[in-house]
Amino acid sequence: MFELFRSAALIASTLAMGLTAGLFAAFAYAVMPGLGRGGDRTFVEAMRQINVAILNGWFALAFGGALVLTLLAAALHLRGDGRGVLPWIVAALLLYGLVLAVTFAVSVPLNDRLAAAGTGDLAAAREQFEAAWVRWNVVRAAASTAAFGCLAWALVVHGASAAPGVGA
After folding, report:
1. Mean pLDDT across the stretch 8-28?
2. Residues 55, 78: Cα–Cα separation, whole Å
3. Is the pLDDT at 86 greater than 70, yes or no?
4. What is the pLDDT of residue 69?
5. What does the alpha-carbon distance between residue 24 and residue 99 come to, in Å, rounded to a whole number?
6. Least crowded by CB within 10 Å, which of 49, 62, 117, 165?
């Protein structure tokens, strides 16, 4: 039963991390380039609305779940035969720590500044937001994708260690 719980935590953490990586990647290769082609009013209004709309339960489940479930997976792999998987889970946690640091130190403050900019000089509001937000979102996309890759590899290692006759 413990092995089932450990496997489920690792699968769930990988799924949550994959959803989070996919979100940041989609912003990097589709959403921001698309918005970048629009005018200042369209860009600023769309980003303001996205920043409000994204604060929902589904986002919280993926974004928060990636951290909580990966921590749970790490805790469940601390002992015994789970230790071979642990370095990959820890690497994912470190990479996701970078995602969280960028989110709370850069992205959220930029979002807040854009929201507070008012309706006056939208070109200036966009200028102070767009390039920095896009650049740091690419960092989040790369780090969360690498974290997802680490967890996917952890699943491979976990499966190999659980397979009968492997390594015998």
Report:
1. 98
2. 33
3. yes
4. 98
5. 10
6. 165
